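To assess whether the prediction recovers the assembly geometry, we first specified each molecular entity separately, as shown.
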Amino acid sequence: MQKSKGIEDLRVYRTRKLLQQAFIELTEEKGFAALTVRDITERAMVNRSTFYRHYLDKYDLLDQYLSEISGLFDDREGQSERSSHEVPSTLIDLLRHMQQFAGFYRAMLGAKADPLLEQRFRQKMEKRVLSCADQARSEQTSPPGAPPINLVYTTTAAAGCSAIVWWLEHDQPYPLEHLAQWLNQFVYDLSGSSLKLNG
Amino acid sequence: MQKSKGIEDLRVYRTRKLLQQAFIELTEEKGFAALTVRDITERAMVNRSTFYRHYLDKYDLLDQYLSEISGLFDDREGQSERSSHEVPSTLIDLLRHMQQFAGFYRAMLGAKADPLLEQRFRQKMEKRVLSCADQARSEQTSPPGAPPINLVYTTTAAAGCSAIVWWLEHDQPYPLEHLAQWLNQFVYDLSGSSLKLNG
Amino acid sequence: MQKSKGIEDLRVYRTRKLLQQAFIELTEEKGFAALTVRDITERAMVNRSTFYRHYLDKYDLLDQYLSEISGLFDDREGQSERSSHEVPSTLIDLLRHMQQFAGFYRAMLGAKADPLLEQRFRQKMEKRVLSCADQARSEQTSPPGAPPINLVYTTTAAAGCSAIVWWLEHDQPYPLEHLAQWLNQFVYDLSGSSLKLNG
Amino acid sequence: MQKSKGIEDLRVYRTRKLLQQAFIELTEEKGFAALTVRDITERAMVNRSTFYRHYLDKYDLLDQYLSEISGLFDDREGQSERSSHEVPSTLIDLLRHMQQFAGFYRAMLGAKADPLLEQRFRQKMEKRVLSCADQARSEQTSPPGAPPINLVYTTTAAAGCSAIVWWLEHDQPYPLEHLAQWLNQFVYDLSGSSLKLNG
DNA sequence: ACGTAAGCGAGACGGTACGTCGCGTCTTACC
DNA sequence: GGTAAGACGCGACGTACCGTCTCGCTTACGT
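The predicted structure of the complete assembly is given in tokenized form:
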């Protein structure tokens, strides 16, 4: 029972890590779409058939990788009280994480991205980003003639994502905290589109 | 004299139209990424090798098609005076065009899109959408601590695009004019993020 | 009536000559098998579709060319009496002709030849060469156990052809008359295989 | 230990045999020149791409096949003493082999042959046939005015080949031993062309 | 510590799509 | 009417990946 699941065979662990590492490197270098399984396995110094023992295809590899790091997109703060203009610390954490793997995320979301992945990724981020918006929105009420709330959600998320991508693709030209502040502001502004400010 | 160059061989015209038509249909049906040249030529009832006489590959076909319709993204109004909250008529035109080819644009920008194309497309739209923003911005001045203007550009465009895509993918649940109004509002709001309102 | 058949349209004449000339040059340069119709027409500075107005394909072009020069293979001397060891003057003529178009014949019969053509050509030459053999044979009678006469024919022709090809491919290292003498000798020798010398 | 290299993967062996077999059959049926890779693979019930894993093209397939059977052209008797008019047993072996694969050799050397192959094949046979001639020649001396020895070589080989082809194409109308006898005689006769008989 | 079952390397195989090339047919305009 | 120009259907080519499948070797695990 020592070997409960999760403590895999070392060889398995090594192989998967090598493949993941090669995958990330190559994604940065030439983009996800241009990758072939052969590329990955050659870089990882692993036999091509071994790849298929662990993953269905490169999409599956990405999936599993995203799953591993998806915890970082959760807003662990719950519904703690905070003012709408205050930057939530989890947003800072998210940005920090993306900053750390900037190459990968740039490849994942930027010019050479795959649309499927991009969308999957955006959806994750969407949820995450919007947990901030909830704060803002809860303080407001909808006026007549305002856009539907779902549209505002989507739009806000897209704005937030694009801002982050811009930041990554321009090599993080501003401090992370500034970006966080601006993101927060965007969310607030767009929420305001459909909402009348209280008071 | 009618047949000066520009009025091409009728066969050429026919072939290209058939290929374009098949391409658009299939893009709607199964998405750009899943398309093969064979798919297109079979649908178009044209020999596969004939495809290569006109296009380098499916990307080139898309390119040329986008070029043909790109005129629709120009803001032909120039810098006519209008209030920042007034919806420009060219925005209406653009939306009308996209509404007309909703299937294609949905495929092009939605879940089954190719990222490269999506980006190219977004860039076109970006320019277009931002010509509205210029109006809004020109009436304002930048406060200290505001995000850089390029970031605002990009973010605004992404927001605009995503709103339109949302509208297309939800089968245009609101009148075109409402969407235009909201888009205008988003631009205005986001511009406001970095700008202090005059007066 | 001025334009009786045979005096073709000058354009036709020019086109055919250009094509023939290009064909011969290219056959020497890269061999018949490697030729394409495009090669020929480009060299001849004639449109490819024009080629098909005159010839079915490159084989047909060769055919017609061979027809034009086939007269040279006829033994116009008839059955004039001559001793079997005397070299017939028409053999000299044939070798002279082949010497003149050595490049073409080398290509036609040598390493880069097409087998079909080679055979057709050999058959022509076979008849020609064997008209000499008839002389030799007529002076002899068949012994028992001798090879059938058809086999001797074929074998003799192949020997004669190969001798000529050898001569062409080695850049005619001996005077034409020597070769003719040797050829004659070969014919005589092989005929002797199946025949008992008289007296 | 059985599976040392040389005893290849059974699948490889099977595939190559199937391809070879199909190749030979089709060569007999429609000639080498008219063959396509697809023809061969369809007949062999093998995927077309698999063909290219083993051979560069159909020429390569032929090459390798000829290599496999080329041992049969060697004169393994060495320089054992024998009279010039005695038929060497290896000649009998060669003819027996060609008789066995008469269809293939007929296709390879006859009307539908490819010239390149034909020549390659003739060269092999040339060496073989001439090992007999060496016997004959060694007993003789060159008279003045005789053709050069290389010419005699080539001519003799061509004569020998054509005799065999004639025999194959006429469905072996005479016993193999007779043909061998005649071949031997041809070699002897042609050698005599350039040589004076001793004594 | 060591036997054994797994992971793994090696690579054959059937597929599918690619982009290229050459063929022979054809239409149209020019002269 | 001959020719240039060139579109077109056809079909073979050789290449690149894909995902599946043995088959032995080797190596980490568990007793």
